[in-house]
């Protein structure tokens, strides 16, 4: 059995200990638990990401919540096998954000995959996985590929710098580190990272409604289908269409139509309450709501809330025969990893097709309602799939 050696409190710089107590609540500064180090503070579980968007085969997705993003403190990960260098860098960077530390590349990779940092500072010459190999591993991980890596090195020769840039390094800092240089270079990378994140968010946001766009939805749908296949968890999808929207545009004009879509998007975006749920504009007057780990009954309940919530907006629509207000129709489908003839397979194409069929059935039944998809059984195979309220 491996024995864990605790880092004596006397070996920890008092300034660093104070910073650990004063930074992000409930935790801030932590060493990765290993056979040779101990945790100063347990990592904040709230910061862990839940789904395959972070760890498995997914592309890292920036948050669409600009307000929440602005309130977050930048996350810095410092990696060096020398605790003294770690403490020195910790003091220099104490005011720049949430600091985490690791004494080996393997532990640093684990910490980074649990919660991606905004900037990484890594010693180029470490035992085991050195800084160059660590950086290369980060760059092939979709979740970490965009994180800038700054090398801390005692070598200033051209060969080492070329090797570092080839591995994906963003910058170099020479040992012994100087506070002014360290802070300036880290601030520069934080600014560049913030701009890069903003551009990626803009590419994933619908310009009219401010919710996720079709590109973001397609990526997330594939990610969740893959995760559902691995985990066996159900995956539900709601396809939502604004009823008689062409009549609305023709009667009130396109500016009013845009306002209507914004109001509908805002209303339905607030209905799902789990971080993994996603509401997106699918195209035109059509929206999609992706619900991981949700069985058909739960998805059907939420679909009915969507119908009722939009109707409750009381947006006047004189061209609609449904109470002269804007309404929506909703199609619901749930996919499972195990396919036995009565279940939709957990593939993006199958789930979208089933939800679309339920949506068309809801519109054919009179609009302003939700219907769920029911796969055909052996007895009604010839009749095709059915949809029910």
Characterize this entry briefly.
The chain is 40% helix and 16% strand. The protein has helices at residues 14-22, 66-71, 83-92, 105-114, 131-139, 158-167, 179-203, 214-231, 245-252, 254-269, 296-312, 348-364; strands at 75-79, 98-102, 119-123, 149-153, 171-174, 235-242, 278-283, 286-292, 328-336, 344-345, 370-374, 386-388. α9 (245-252) packs across α10.
Walkthrough of the structure:
With 389 residues, the protein is α/β, with parallel strands linked by helices. The protein is 40% helix and 16% strand. The chain has 12 helices and 12 strands. The chain has helices at 14-22, 66-71, 83-92, 105-114, 131-139, 158-167, 179-203, 214-231, 245-252, 254-269, 296-312, 348-364, and strands at residues 75-79, 98-102, 119-123, 149-153, 171-174, 235-242, 278-283, 286-292, 328-336, 344-345, 370-374, 386-388. The strands form 2 sheets. Strands 6, 7, 8, 9, 10, 11 and 12 form a 7-stranded mixed β-sheet that branches. A 5-stranded parallel β-sheet has the order 2-1-3-4-5, sandwiched between helices. Strand 3, helix 5 (131-139) and strand 4 form a beta-alpha-beta unit. Mean pLDDT is 80; it is low at 1-70 and 377-384.
